[in-house]
Amino acid sequence: MSFYDILGIKCKAYNKKVFKLNPFSNIVGKFTKITILVETGTDYKLIFAGNENLLPTFKVEDDTLYIEQTHRFNKQGILANQILKIIVPASIQLQNCRLYNKLGNINLINLKIKELQINCHAGILKVCHAKIENADLKIGRGNLEIHSSRINLGLLSTYDGELKVLCSTLNDVKLNVTEGNIIMTDNILQGGSSQLYSGNFALTNTTLKSDYSVKNSDGNNTAWNVNVKKADLQSENGNNTMKAKPNSTGFILKMIARDGDNLVK
């Protein structure tokens, strides 16, 4: 008798399955524990690697891919690592993509999406080389990373984790972290803001296209090599230091720290 038999889990061999799908413009997915990848290819396709018993149910209906993990798991909740890949043609723009994952990582690569909504209770979310019109990305426990992407409107938030934006363009996007750091490097920012409750904020090699504000309760705020015309620095229990030479064609950077230092250099 195997270990899984003792726990009452019926298992089939760990394998890989590939499914060709009819075209769709929307994705609605709800998962219990799985690693999810959504990326571009030459056709509409679904690839699952894992225990066959844990294959999510799915259907394409009304221009929408509906996919869900509906399995009932034993009390111990022991699962093998399951990987699900959703592939869409590189030429299309997804109109709406809504994903919920209780436990596991989510990766989106080379996508064009009009409306993106992701809620992950625990895991790492990465968005790379994507163009998104409106994004609402929320992580309960885990990191959120945006790389080489463009987001025109939305909210990026994590309760307990690091939020990192690299080589990207954000227009009217709000960043929110409760416990963790915000790191922004090599970006273009227009509108939007950042708010932290317990963590450090770092803004590096960034071009501002409008005024920008940062509010931090417990942590330091630092900006390096940013086109700042004027720095509005406020701290109740910390130092405010402006070392950078003002840029006459730049914008106002407002940084507020309750318990921490503000530094622009």
From TrEMBL:
Cited InterPro entries: Toastrack_DUF4097
Gene3D superfamilies: 2.160.20.120
Pfam families attached to this UniProt entry: DUF4097
Domain of life: Bacteria
Record-annotated DUF4097 domain positions: 90-182
Protein name: DUF4097 domain-containing protein
Organism: Lactobacillus rodentium
UniProt lineage: Bacteria, Bacillati, Bacillota, Bacilli, Lactobacillales
